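Q: Convert this sequence to structure tokens.
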Amino acid sequence: MYCYIKYIDYKDIQPSEFICTAIENKQLLFNPDCYIRIILDYVYGEVGIPNEIQNKFDFATEKGKVLKINDYPPNVIGLEIFTDKETYYIVYWDDDNQIKPMLGGASREITEFEAYQRRRSSQSKRRSSANKSSQGSSLVSNETKLRMSQSKN
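A:
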């Protein structure tokens, strides 16, 4: 059993205003059949993320689904979170609260990840506006029902 993490070193995303497109992604292999705390210590150690800011990072699938890894207790087995032989990215939130993968700026992976994020965002906006319009139409129909019942009296 194993999973992959694709990433660039933490030092390579500093300072945040500087985007280096020449940095290539690295790949790390890990065994998901152990406690999540051990997995996180291993991955964050290899990537170089300092202890004091590790809670600002998370993992995401290739399609952009964030795992919310910090919400799990440290003694949860990684197999409850990770899928065998899948690839994951380390992600963080930028100043605009947008999710950003720790990947090289010119990589195929970052382009695909951002495309998935845009699609997820537009789908959730469509769902949100559909919910609002259905709520609006149900309000109208409730008002109509109320008027009809009042006119009968």
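The first strand starts at residue 3 and ends at 7.
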